[in-house]
Amino acid sequence: MSSSVLYDAPGPRAKARYRAFGVLAVLGIAGLLWYAYDSLASRNQFSAAMWDPFQYTAVQQLIVNGLLDTLKAFGLAAAFSLVLGALLAAGRLSDHRPVRAVAAAIVQFFRAMPLLIMIFALYQSFFTTSPLWALVTGLTLYNGAVQAEIIRSGVNAVPRGQGEAAYALGMRKSQVMTAILVPQAVRSMLPAIIGQLVVTLKDTSLGFVITYTELLYAGKLIASNTATPDGYPYIPVVLVIGPIYIGMCLLLTALAKWIEARGRRGANRRTPVAA
Amino acid sequence: MGILFEHGNFTLFRDGFLRTLELSAVSAVLALLLGILLAAFRVSPVPALRVFGTVWVNIFRNTPLTLLFIAVNFGLPQLDVHLSPFVFAAIALSAYTGSFVCEVLRSGINTVSLGQAEAARSLGMTFGQTLTLVVLPQAARSVLSPLSSVFIALPRNSAIAGAFSVPELYNVQQTLSDRGYAIFAIFFWVALAYLVISAAVGLLFRVIENRVNRLAVAR
Q: Rounded to an integer, what distance in angstroms lies between the CA atom of residue A7 and that of residue B94?
């Protein structure tokens, strides 16, 4: 009946209690929101001067360019990290022990390394003139390692009988992998893979530290170049840039959920009876 | 590789290492508390609290940590909130990590078998009692391994604080790089420090997991 295991469908008294709590909670949240609004307004964060820069086409163009640069870095990093992830996963699933060991070491190392440390080191060593490639390389190495683990656990989660049946039909290991195991693994791991892509998208904002002109860098530039009587418009910029990031991430997450729901429906159709 | 032992670099590096540990530990405790509170909101019978928890988690999980750092470091001073960079960093990190902790706990709560909560309720326990005495202790077991990856990620994420003038390991890397040392040598030592921290957190969680599993078997 109830939506959660933690409580029963409420009776009349519980309903009244929940309603009382609900009213209290709404009041509390409204109070918090009002306090936030009031403290922003009383320090003139909503004054016309604070929001004025967003009216200029140059500033709007800056935000659009920043968004495009963010998407460019994300697209490159997503594609490369999936390729690297597939390669590393193949390495970790290899029959040869040295290959397995090398792939495992690479995956463990890059998963434990802070992305910022790597991006900075890459920027200082190999890509001094091109922050884009420092960012993309760093994102690729880190997310590739994570995607490799996702793909590997997906392949391992395919029922053993699938691979055994394929070997029994005389398929080679490469055939078993590409024709039997990987398609099923990708299907079940797609939500997790997209979830990691959301992380990749969020992490493109680290490019800001190495002066890559992505969305966050554009925002910081706008804020620090506009002097108003009440200080720099950092809060308006955050209120504009934040929803853009949140919107993009929610879109990707919605895609993952949609695929998950679709996959479940398909799986149910195919295996009507659980053995 | 010997750069660590020249010109007082070792003190700088050691202080950075300790600062990273300190920031991660403080943020971990705050994130855990915030996560438990948010998870309680998200499974509570009061719709307003559930909506609040969901909105909060969706906002903070989908905002880049760097943007949170900017909001906290440059936004709060505009509101006459002046704290040290360390406190700002701890606020940003724990607000971000707390929402991940919440999601882990929530999915853990859902793995506890229905009968447990039903039994607790039929004994007349309230929502709070059911949650804290029956469900959460059992959820702990299935929660530990995803929780460990959240807390292994925390020291890694704390590196961003270095870009916002907290003198931790990333900041040390920047300083040494500005002093003109070879980036590979610096990277070697900083990477080593982070590997040590990751390994230590992983080990800690494995010990806790063993202990919890042993308790479960003994019972």
A: 30
Query: Does residue A151 contact residue A84 with C-beta atoms inside 8 Å?
Result: no
Q: Are A103 and A94 in contact (CB under 8 A)?
A: yes
Three-class secondary structure assignment of B139-192: HHHHHHHHHHHHHHHHHHHHHHHHHHCCCCHHHHHHHHHHCCCCHHHHHHHHHH
CA distance A216 to B157: 17
The dihedral region occupied by A214, where left means phi > 0, alpha psi between -120 and 50, and beta the remainder, is beta
Q: Which residues of A touch B187 (CB under 8 A)?
A: 117, 121, 125
Residue-wise pLDDT tens digits, B81-139: 788 888 899 999 999 999 999 988 888 888 887 888 888 888 888 878 888 888 888 88
pLDDT (tens digit per residue) in A127-146: 878 888 888 999 999 999 98
In terms of CA atoms, which chain A residue is nearest residue B194?
A113
User: What DSSP string describes A62-84?
Assistant: HHHHHHHHHHHHHHHHHHHHHHH
Beta bridge partners of A231: A228
Tokens, residue A241: 């840039």
Nearest by CB to B47, which of A22, A45, A116? A22
Q: Which residues in chain A are closer than 8 Å to B123, comparing Cβ atoms?
A: none
- Could you give the CA distance from residue B144 to residue B105 in angstroms, rounded to a whole number? 9
Q: What structural domains and CATH numbers belong to chain A?
A: 68-256 (1.10.3720.10)
Provide the Cα torsion A58, A59, A65, A66; round to 10°: 160
The ipTM estimated for the assembled molecules is: 0.79
Number of H helices, E strands in chain A: 11, 0
CA distances from B66 to A12, B4, B101 (A): 48, 29, 19
Question: What domains sit in chain B, N to C, each tagged with a CATH number?
Answer: 2-218 (1.10.3720.10)
| Yes or no, beta carbons of A29 and B48 under 8 Å apart | yes
| CB-CB under 8 Å, B62 with A117 | no
CA distance A223 to A226: 6
Which B-chain residues 90-119 have CB contacts (< 8 A) with chain A? 109-110, 112, 114, 116-118
User: Is B184 touching A (CB cutoff 8 A)?
Assistant: yes
A91: nearest Cα among A195, A207, A5, A177? A177
The 8-class DSSP code of residue A3 comes to S
